[in-house]
Amino acid sequence: MKNNTGLTLLSVAILFMLMFSFAFPAGNSILTMAAAECPPGYSGTYPSCVVTVPGCTNPSAANYNPNATADDGFCKSGHPLVSGCTIPSAANYNPNATVDDGSCKYTPSPVSGCTMPGAANYNPNATVDDGSCKYTPSPVSGCTMPGAANYNPNATADDGSCKSGHPLVSGCTIPSAANYNPNATVDDGSCKS
Hints:
- By secondary structure, this protein is mainly beta.
- Helix content is about 10%, strand content about 20%.
- It has a domain of about 45 residues.
- The protein is rod-shaped, with a radius of gyration of 52 Å.
- About 15% of the residues have low confidence.
């Protein structure tokens, strides 16, 4: 009868060597498990597997991806990425920005109107002058009483300077009235029928 125990022990030893590796660091004899590969979509070695994020891992490349964990071999030469507002109509548009960072700011729509504070139709909310400003003429001081000797038809504000060529006499100026006063120059509303 043949002893198969030796063959069985040899088979186990070979299998053991295939599954494990021996390392003998400086003075120590330690048995370590051979490095196992991580499953697809992960990088590193077991048990330190991390999700693989393919992309350009070169910080000086134009398409650098700071979140990439595995270089995909498609790094583009050029300037590094510049974050900023990439929308030309925004108030803080950055023509050098290559990546929009969501910081764009917009000014309110322009409001047309008169922007001159001295105008009669001045609009304090107007941001664009539309040429509609209207100016009232400055008041003209003078005598505004038509019967006065110094009457000024252009006067818009009476300055109290009216003079009559004749002394002003109040009274009834209607000849058919019972109390008509032929010397009256200003009708005072006292006429009686």
